[in-house]
Amino acid sequence: MIDSSQSKNNIPKYLQTLFDARHNAGVKVAMFVEKETVDRVIKQDKSWTPLADETKRRKKSTKAWIDTGSLYNEISYKVASDNQTTNTEVGIWDSDNGYIARCLEYGTKKGGITAIPARPLFRPVYDENLDKTVRIFASEMAKHLKKYQF
Question: Is residue 123 part of a domain?
Fold first, then answer.
């Protein structure tokens, strides 16, 4: 027989802290994806179409996604949680650079001809790191469970 005076029911405490734990796990995932995204800009994805000669002369650089540095410096994350879900996003928010990022991500056409070739950044980082982000989230939640001796 179990002595109820020594029994420890951690479920109420666990449930009270679950929202914050899930949100914090989402923040860890978002921070990881943000870093991977910025690293890809700095290292330059080998699959990206090289810049046109005219663009290289104007920028005085051969690097895509980098001109003054303001574009990749604005890459950041958002995490939103409610009672059932935690959503993470990585992107460029609330600036004119968001428009430029869309043009670089998907490319542009002028008169049916490619003006700026697509140099995808955000989607490939997401796709290539999906398994790792799931592992990060699961690991953070496992740490939370362990605190309450489940």
Answer: yes
